[in-house]
Amino acid sequence: MRNVLGVINLVNERPILKELTHHRCLASLPFGGRYRMIDFTMSNFMNVSISKVAIFTKDKYRSLMDHLGSGKEWDLDHRSQGLFILPSIHPDEKIKGDLQQFYDHLEFFQRATADTVIIAPGHHICKIDFNDVLKKHESNKADITVLYKDYDGGAVKRPIYHQCSLDTDGAVRDINFFTAPKKGDHICLETYVIKKQLLIDLIKNCIEYDEYDFLKDIVKANLINLKVQGYQYTGYMPFIHSLETYHASNMEFLNPEILRHFFYDSWEVFTKIKHEAPAEFTNSSKVSNSLIANGCIIEGTVENSIIFRGVKVKKGAVVKNSIIMQKGDIEEGARIENVITDKQVIITKNQKITAINKPVVIKKEVVV
Amino acid sequence: MASKKWIAMLLAGGQGSRLGELTSDLAKPAVPFGGKYRIIDFTLSNCTHSGIDTVGILTQYRPHILNSYIGNGRPWDLDRNNGGVSMLPPYQGKDGGEWYKGTANAVYQNFHFIDHNDPEYVLVISGDHIYKMDYNKMLEDHMENDAHATIAVIEVPWAEANRFGIMNTNETDQIIQFDEKPQNPKSNLASMGVYIFNWNHLKQYLTEDEEDISSSNDFGKDIIPKMLKNEAKLQAYRFKDYWKDVGTIESLWEAHMDLLEEPSNFKLGDPNWQIYAGNANHPPQYISEDANVTQSLVNEGCLVFGNVDHSVLSYNVQVGSGSNVKNSVIMPNVKIGNNVIIEKAIIGSGTVIEDGAIISDTKKGLILIGENQQISSESALLQALY
């Protein structure tokens, strides 16, 4: 067991992908055929044998709790360690900031035997090797390590990213909030390594002065007093900030190289186990360049698409460039293109939906 | 401990020598089936769906994979505070110990385990049959008939009746005679190897049978005939759904092909009767642009670049481009290279089929390739091998 505590901080989730996060938090949004976004961070934690993980939730976390259960799938149902879901204890008040919630659950940190904490958001689709991050954190003798990635995404509609600037020795010099990034800008991944005792002291200190934001009041405010070091993540990670980028980054999984990177090289990505049968193909199935999860029955045509568990594509139906979430039902002769259907959507017989430019979302349990 | 209404004793010790190379390293119930399961999952899931919370699994031959697979029984809801799953290999007592001599002796040797649970009824099942059955209905029947034992039977084609243990019954389905593989069958009701006994009654028979040196200590050959001789009330319980003994390579292959029938009389994906499996984690399957997959079952973790027709691909199988897989069963972790032809074959787990290999019997026979083999294009197999 490693001496590290994992924290998944959902308090700062931005209101992106509103069409899909009406009833769930971003972390529990389905991704890649059978995963939820949070699975990637959970699995990255697992890779460094973290045996105690806290998830600080903001709201809409029912589906997240259902997904995570006891944490068994990520090897987290331990007697004394394990998975802790820590919601706000002031449900009727507006959250002042993540530090408020950390402070309200300070006991979680105090009781833990680990001496180092990794804090990460719940929606990054990536494989960060925290072994390497922890090693650099130690060798740099850093108080706080801040992970960043050079921006390689397109233009953003809303400035949602924070940007770091660095000294030549890799120390973080400044942090700018809510910027609209250009290519090559150092985007803060809101992923940090910090010693537990230092974190506890800083949290207490901030709350005393009515300061509530981790990045602003713990990281930025201490750039001079403390050794705050940058760690550049150079691996694959899509910047998801819109429906288009959510759709496109799902489609990236159809690239065999990226598929191998996530699922066949290095460590596994774990998710909740369901007991669905293998996918069933019939005489009339025509599937190409697609990901298909178990429990699906494919009688029709599926092209360049991501098909989640338990989806039925009936005879004569055509699904192209689409994402069909769990238990969707595409009936006979229906034709959809560039569509994202949330869970349990029914596209009725001979219905045609073709989206041009921006993908269209069909909301959960809707019958079209 | 509170006494239980019933518990199940699952016979999983058989070597399954007729499954050839597939059971060289593992017990028959642990042989992969249906793309993501092992054979034993079907009986264990039956127990779950029948509300049985205590299952003893009697193991003997190469139990290691089975042991680690069953674990604490969680996938089958058998990680219980009271009861749950217990692995029961032969053991040493103060007067020594011995291997399980037969099915009845295996249960006899676990007398204390059963007594400890203090059940009224004992369900005896075996871990090598593919079927979905609610044992509750059979128990209801058993109680209603006030029988000493109830044996599940299924109608088999008359022509095949001589391969089974046949139950001859009267007009109320009471068993009057048992014929093991009869030359001239008088009935086509075959025993499915599913028994319900009153434990107090069975206890006596097991003890007496143990003292009989000439006995082979087998339920079918010894216990049932003795009960009939003593005019115990033995009832047949007719099961009408799909049931298949997958004890041979041919029947294992046939059972897989049955899954692919349209419409199928045995669906794996029934939401009201899921088959639970201790499955590991695998990514969704990827079907490439040039791939062609028809009338097949494909499990998670597969990467398909070639053509697959009327076949079952288990988890983590890779099919290279230009390859053709037809009428075949591909077990887990098999890697099939490019331009390979596989027809009517069972390929064992972890085997690698190199580019250009041809696995197809010119006389249309079934080909078996064992586990962890390396098959090159030079070692093309054109004959049924086993």
From TrEMBL, chain A:
Residue ranges annotated for the Nucleotidyl transferase domain, each copy included:
17-152
SUPFAM superfamilies linked to this entry: Nucleotide-diphospho-sugar transferases, Trimeric LpxA-like enzymes
Which PANTHER family does this UniProt record tie to the protein? Answer: GLUCOSE-1-PHOSPHATE ADENYLYLTRANSFERASE-RELATED, GLYCOGEN BIOSYNTHESIS PROTEIN GLGD
- Cross-referenced InterPro entries, in alphabetical order? ADP-Glc_PPase (IPR011831), GlgDAde_trans (IPR011832), GlmU/GlgC-like_hexapep (IPR056818), NTP_transferase_dom (IPR005835), Nucleotide-diphossugar_trans (IPR029044), Trimer_LpxA-like_sf (IPR011004)
The record's annotation in Gene3D superfamilies points to: Hexapeptide repeat proteins, Spore Coat Polysaccharide Biosynthesis Protein SpsA, Chain A
Give the protein name, as stated in the record: Glucose-1-phosphate adenylyltransferase
Q: Which GO terms describe its biological process?
A: glycogen biosynthetic process
Q: Which Pfam families match?
A: Hexapep_GlmU, NTP_transferase
Instruction: Write out the similarity annotation.
Output: Belongs to the bacterial/plant glucose-1-phosphate adenylyltransferase family.
Keyword Nucleotidyltransferase carried by entry: yes
Glucose-1-phosphate adenylyltransferase/Bifunctional protein GlmU-like C-terminal hexapeptide domain spans which residues?
283-353
Per the UniProt record, the lineage of the source organism begins with:
Bacteria, Bacillati, Bacillota, Bacilli, Bacillales
Molecular-function GO terms, alphabetical: glucose-1-phosphate adenylyltransferase activity
Species this protein is from: Psychrobacillus psychrotolerans
Keywords on this record?
A: Glycogen biosynthesis, Nucleotidyltransferase, Transferase
From TrEMBL, chain B:
Q: Domain Glucose-1-phosphate adenylyltransferase/Bifunctional protein GlmU-like C-terminal hexapeptide spans what residues?
A: 290-359
MF-aspect GO terms: ATP binding; glucose-1-phosphate adenylyltransferase activity
Catalytic activity line of the entry:
alpha-D-glucose 1-phosphate + ATP + H(+) = ADP-alpha-D-glucose + diphosphate
| PROSITE patterns for the chain | ADP_GLC_PYROPHOSPH_1 (PS00808), ADP_GLC_PYROPHOSPH_2 (PS00809), ADP_GLC_PYROPHOSPH_3 (PS00810)
The yes or no answer to whether the keyword Nucleotidyltransferase is present is: yes
Q: In which pathway does it act?
A: Glycan biosynthesis; glycogen biosynthesis
Every Nucleotidyl transferase domain range? 8-261
GO biological processes: glycogen biosynthetic process
- Positions annotated to bind alpha-D-glucose 1-phosphate: Y100, G165, E180, K181, S191
> Keywords assigned by UniProt?
ATP-binding, Carbohydrate metabolism, Glycogen biosynthesis, Glycogen metabolism, Nucleotide-binding, Nucleotidyltransferase, Transferase
**Site (Could play a key role in the communication between the regulatory and the substrate sites): which residue positions?**
Q60, W99
Record's keyword annotation contains Nucleotide-binding: yes
Tell me its EC number(s), please: 2.7.7.27
- Top-level taxon: Bacteria
Q: NCBIfam families, from UniProt?
A: glgC, PRK05293.1
Membership in a protein family = Belongs to the bacterial/plant glucose-1-phosphate adenylyltransferase family.
Q: What does this protein do?
A: Involved in the biosynthesis of ADP-glucose, a building block required for the elongation reactions to produce glycogen. Catalyzes the reaction between ATP and alpha-D-glucose 1-phosphate (G1P) to produce pyrophosphate and ADP-Glc.
Its quaternary structure?
Answer: Homotetramer.
This protein is called Glucose-1-phosphate adenylyltransferase
Q: Which organism is it from?
A: Psychrobacillus psychrotolerans
Q: What is the lineage of its organism?
A: Bacteria, Bacillati, Bacillota, Bacilli, Bacillales
Q: Which gene encodes it?
A: glgC
